[in-house]
């Protein structure tokens, strides 16, 4: 039997950072399904969708990438502060951008969990879910994170996932375990 959480269930932001095709969206969906099955309110703020509305018009310069991350960080903090488990599969390549989001959560004592989906770039480029690595290699795209645009790995993440040697379910379960350790599920 599962116990439904009460109205005071604590929310949290779970930020999944990593390279394109690292597995962020896939893990977010598995985790979201499990949490919803347990009766939690869950929101997935996926980078691609957000760029179609909240961040429409932003590009991929350092400044625009930061603006995108700060907007998502703000929305996620508001959701999490109000009891939602907000899962954020967004590349967020810059350490200072991610740090600002963490500080925003600290300021309201809202739980924040940073997960580095640390799939090596050669595995990501083989997966190439959206064909970005191929387009970059063919000279039809520039500014691909981890290839010809920076990716600053988290220095002290709450969890590091080696997805190249895990199933998506195992990766999602590892994130769930961190939430459980913190009393958030
Ligand atoms: N352990 C794992 N965790 C997550 N994905 C995995 C794992 N093992 C294999 N995969 C596969 O890797 C691919 C990851 O694609 P996904 O769209 O989730 O990447 P992403 O990080 O969201 O990329 P992008 O930044 O471009 O949106 C999927 O095809 C997924 O099935
Ligand atoms: Mg994705």
From TrEMBL:
GO terms for molecular function: adenylylsulfate kinase activity. Signal peptide: none annotated. Residues 10-161 form the APS kinase domain. It is an enzyme of class 2 (transferase). ATP binds at residues 18-25. Its EC number is 2.7.1.25. Gene3D superfamilies: P-loop containing nucleotide triphosphate hydrolases (3.40.50.300). Keywords: ATP-binding, Kinase, Nucleotide-binding, Phosphoprotein, Transferase. Pathway: Sulfur metabolism; hydrogen sulfide biosynthesis; sulfite from sulfate: step 2/3. The keyword Disulfide bond does not apply. It catalyses: adenosine 5'-phosphosulfate + ATP = 3'-phosphoadenylyl sulfate + ADP + H(+). The keyword Repeat does not apply. It comes from the Bacteria. Catalyzes the synthesis of activated sulfate. Belongs to the APS kinase family. HAMAP family: Adenylyl_sulf_kinase. PANTHER family: SULFATE ADENYLYLTRANSFERASE. This is Adenylyl-sulfate kinase. The gene is cysC.
